[in-house]
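Possible regression after last week's pipeline update?

I re-ran a chain I had predicted before the update to compare outputs. Posting the input and the new output here so someone can diff against the archived version. Not blocking, just want to make sure nothing changed silently.
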Amino acid sequence: MEIDIMKKDWKREYFSIPNLMGYFRLILIPVYLMVYIHADGMKDYAIAAGILLLSALTDFFDGKVARRFDMITDWGKILDPIADKLTQGIVVISLIFRYRFMAIVLVIFIVQQLGQGILGLIYIKKSGKVEGAKMFGKVSTAFLDFMVLVLVIWIDIPKNVALAMMTVSVFLMTNSLLRYFDYYYKEIRK
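New output (post-update):
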């Protein structure tokens, strides 16, 4: 079974309400970056955090709408994690300038995304199916989103609290990568 997104009803596939929400999240990325880079005080950091919160809420609701109104599409299964990962990656990069340890978070994040992406593509090629995110991946993503939101808005957070949050995030991302590897390895060998 091969996936051919181009043969599907393209309006439903690409322009469903959940997918429009995904495009909106992509548009929010440069908006966040401009606000954060040019932040001149607590008010600006609060606006940057508000943009991230809006992105997270949109991410939450696009999945709810897709499931509730039968608008799940293969393109949406691809678009949603791309919007997640681009948002997370840009936010992590933006935070490196305030928190050096965030560079380690970025390296683990990149390794995790490349590893999961490659395994996912191999799985799609073999099975012809596009899988949604697993719960352990959602937990890792949710914690990373929470952590970056806190680090963006709480500019005078104690260093030990920031370091503890980053350490937990690294642990969750590593755990997620290993569990995805195990899952895809078993599925690909079937």
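Follow-up from reviewer: compared with the archived run. The first helix runs from residue 10 to 14. Marking as no regression found.
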